[in-house]
Amino acid sequence: HNATGKSSIAEAIVWCLYGTDSAGTSKQDERLQLRGAPDMAVSLTAVTDDGQIVRVTRTRDKSQVLQVGGKRQGAQQKIEAQFGTLPEFLSMCMPGYFSSLEPKAARAVLARCLPVLDKEEVLKSLLPVHRDILSTDRYPMIDGADSTDFILEKTRRDLRVTEDEVARLDGEISGLKGVLEQEAPVQPTLLLTPKRVQERAQLQAKVDAAALQALTKEARLAALHAKRESLLASYETCKSQWQTVVDTCPACQQGLSADRLSKLREIAKEHNALVRLQMDELIRQGQAVKAQIEALVQREPEAPSDALEKAKLAQYQVDEQQDRRALADYEARYAVRRRAQARIKEAQQALSLATRRISDLRRRIEALDAYRNAYIRLQHERLKDTFTHVRIELVDANRETGEVRSVFRIFWKGRPYRTLSQSEKMRCDVEIG
Q: What does the pLDDT read at residue 171?
């Protein structure tokens, strides 16, 4: 009868094991808890097929605490090992839960129950061309359609990368062909011919000689002026050594005797005679240096390079710069052409390899698609044998292309689930559970 606690027991079992309500919704403790009660606790005792007793306890005060066998550590993992995941448990024990799932979630639950097919069994149903590609160890596919989807996605990524590489190589080869289709660079005719180079060298030598001569004259004049300054300094030094005799004593200012005065004058005369000789020699040397300076200053300089020679040298320099630019441009264009000739061969070889790889990858994808479709088809056939009145469709084959498309449909005695009455839906759900 109604209101006898049937649903409460179901809610208590689900909450104890998974902490949710019977619809799989979490954070429903307040709705499940007895109104006005400060806390909630459920204990569940289960006996496994081998007689092992499992005691599960979940309590709620300020937070949930789950224990299995009196221990909190790893409690939820132990529950899923014994009772399955929440979607699996609710699909088996709560009629209507599985049928209300979204197709993707329903397929995920059903995948845990579907038989894993042997690879060789699936290969036998394929065309020989596909079977030959997938029979190698490169395609293990140990866990059915999931590993096939993984390998398919990886192969499609490889295909996209290779297609991008082909597009890049096509563009590169097109650019290289454009370079090679241009006229080959011609070595420029130089403005500075060997004869003009020789003329330039001779003219430069003449100008350098004149410049050197001018520099030598300046250096000699500087040396002579320095020597003259030195002689003048020496002359002033000698002049300062000239002695003069006075007739009084420097210390007491008393007059000197005639003998003493005569003797001092003789000494001064001898000293001044030597100083005079030195001063005369310095004067002579100074006059000689002065004469040399005047001779250098008055001498006519060597004829310098005239304006025409300077203009010629300037023109030689301009021509040389133009020759360098022309040679640099030629060498650059020649290097580009040479690199293009070498690179286009490498790019064409790489393009050929990439093109072959694309064909190989497309054949692999075709074979993997065929394997995946065959796997789902065979798995679908096994699923049909499981039920009496229920039929679950997981695939839908395109009649024109033969492509298998993933779907999720439930039928009860040939009728779609949505058209069933409530009691028929319950019978359908129980059979699925």
A: 94
- Low pLDDT (below 50) residues in the chain: 302
Residue 150 confidence (pLDDT): 83
- Give me 9's structure tokens: 């027991």
Residues with Cβ < 8 Å from 10, sequence gap 6 or more? 22, 93, 94
Residue that the structure tokens 């050929």 belong to = 352
Distance of CA 102 to the CA centre of its chain: 42
Q: CB of 17 within 8 A of CB of 57?
A: no
Q: With 0-12 CB in 10 A as exposed, 13-18 as middle and 19+ as buried, what is 323?
A: middle
Bridge partners, 60 (sequence order): 40, 64
Give, as one character, the DSSP assignment of residue 243: -
- CA distances 134 to 144, 236, 423, Å, are 13, 116, 47
pLDDT tens-place string over residues 115-149 = 778 888 888 888 999 988 888 767 666 556 667 87
- Given a contact cutoff of 8 angstroms between Cβ atoms, the answer to whether 27 and 18 are in contact is no
Express the helix, strand and coil content of the chain in percent, nearest 5 each: 65, 10, 25
Which residues, 6+ apart, have CB-to-CB distance to 337 below 8 Å?
Answer: 179, 180, 182, 184, 185
pLDDT at 300: 54
Beta bridge partners of 393: 409
Q: Is 396 left (phi over 0), alpha (psi -120 to 50) or beta?
A: beta
pLDDT of residue 306: 64
pTM above 0.85, yes or no: no
Q: Strands 64-68, 404-412: parallel, antiparallel or unpaired by DSSP?
A: unpaired
User: Got the DSSP string for 98-143?
Assistant: GGGS-HHHHHHHHHTTSPPPPHHHHHHTS-HHHHHHHTSTT---TT
pLDDT of residue 64: 83
